[in-house]
Amino acid sequence: MNENKTEAQSGKLLEVKDLRVSFFTPAGEVKAVSGISYDLNYDEVMGIVGESGSGKSQEAYSIMGLLQSPGKVIGGSITFEGRDVLAFDKKEMTAFRGSEVAMIFQNPMTCLNPVYTVGNQLIEALRAHDKKITKQEAAKRAMEMLELVGINNVQKRMKQYPHEFSGGMRQRVMIAMGLICHPKLLIADEPTTALDVTIQAQILELMKDLQKKTHMGIIFITHNLGVVAEICDKVSVMYAGKIVEQGPVDDIFYRPGHPYTMGLLRSMPRVDAESYERLIPIEGTPVDMLNPPEGCPFAPRCEHCMKICLQKMPPYVELGDNHRAACWLRVQERLNEKQGEEAVQNG
After folding, report:
1. I need a surface site. Which of 25, 26, 78, 138 has the fewest CB within 10 A?
2. Is the peptide bond between 315 and the residue preceding it cis, with omega within 30 degrees of 0?
3. Other beta carbons less than 10 A from residue 342's beta carbon
4. pLDDT tens for residues 13-55?
5. Contact assessment for residue 118 and residue 157, using Cβ atoms and an 8 Å cutoff
6. Rounded distance, CA 315 to CA 317, Å?
7. Beta strands in 53-196 (DSSP E)
């Protein structure tokens, strides 16, 4: 039995291909996600980073079947353990959410029901996906999970309502709710935003520990590149609905290939800096998603912008093992290398 489990968990857990999500508004079509592709294995943590409005959360909602009207998946595929998620009916999607894939939302204020106790909500979340568990067993597991995420005096806390918790405590309750059913895939949308650095470190440690025990995959959506360096195995950098760079976390931090990734890293404070350094912001503003540019979406803000960048979207260029970036600079580099090699051969 264990051999089968290991064999099953050596493949891909999630595969997203050419996913496109649009919002059809009175002003026109907003292309929130424009043809992104990635895969996630068991035991793997993928970070998705980018500015607000880059489409990070919308692609996550597409996996969960939680896109709000007028949002709609207009193309591509989402495959979970070989099953087509976009073809699920309402009953299948309800069974899928919680037990197989769970999401920790960014704003705990709007995700907890104010008229039910925290304990009641945790117990109901567990019993909704495990029909065999008794109420007493569910309460015991809920208290254990609250302790795991750093909440003290859990018997008292189980009887309290969300308004009796601070913002950071509510966020920890949401993390407990996401993890309580031991899902195969956890989508964490800015899960540590409301937490101080000490609790943030504890939560990251908890997520890594649970991942090792349950072999779950994690998609970690964040603005915090420090968190990405701490927990992620690989990173997808999103800008204006597109993935502009993908690669192992070390490659993204030490050998970035896209000017946007470089800009994000330059604007991040470094603890290992030898002296005081000025943070360099990325100039300009994000593109208008109602009227995106013809070429590379980052071109209007890029210090290396060439004429072709404004006219045509660049192809992905392989920069290393599983590391690629969509940038005309990298295309030019490859052409120059090829011409140099040919000159040597002919010379």
Report:
1. 26
2. no
3. 10
4. 999 999 999 999 999 999 999 999 999 999 899 999 988 888 9
5. yes
6. 6
7. 71-80, 83-84, 101-104, 185-189
